[in-house]
Amino acid sequence: MVGSYCAVSGCWDLKKESKYRFPNPRKFKDFFKKWIDLCQNGNLFKMSPEKVYANCRVCALHFVKSSFGANNRLTRTAYPQPKLPADENHGISISVPHEVEDSTVKEKLLIMDDPLPP
């Protein structure tokens, strides 16, 4: 289903939040590239810009309040925040680079991802 999942790496929002389309890559090439970079999702780099624009969305959790204008639409200068929703991650944002292949590094990152004590 088109646009059902958030394109931001590590986001687990599955249909709950509103989703927003990427900027048009033909009209706003640099802004589109900025969104791709901020999503930190290696799969987006493998897709054509037209396919990303047609099929991928970013959920509302990755935008600040000032990103929204009238009727809950994004402003022309809105861009996603790559952070994960704080309430589910104890206020900590952890981003894992897509290039990580070393198993030792991956194990260290998994240790960092352990929940904090209450």
TrEMBL record:
GO MF term (any one): zinc ion binding
Domain of life the protein comes from: Eukaryota
Membrane-spanning residues: none
Pfam families (UniProt xref): THAP
Keywords, comma-separated and alphabetical: DNA-binding, Metal-binding, Zinc, Zinc-finger
The keyword Chloroplast belongs to this UniProt entry's keyword annotation: no
Coiled coil: none
Annotated ranges, domain THAP-type: 1-83
Name of the protein in its database record: THAP-type domain-containing protein
Species, as recorded: Aquatica leii
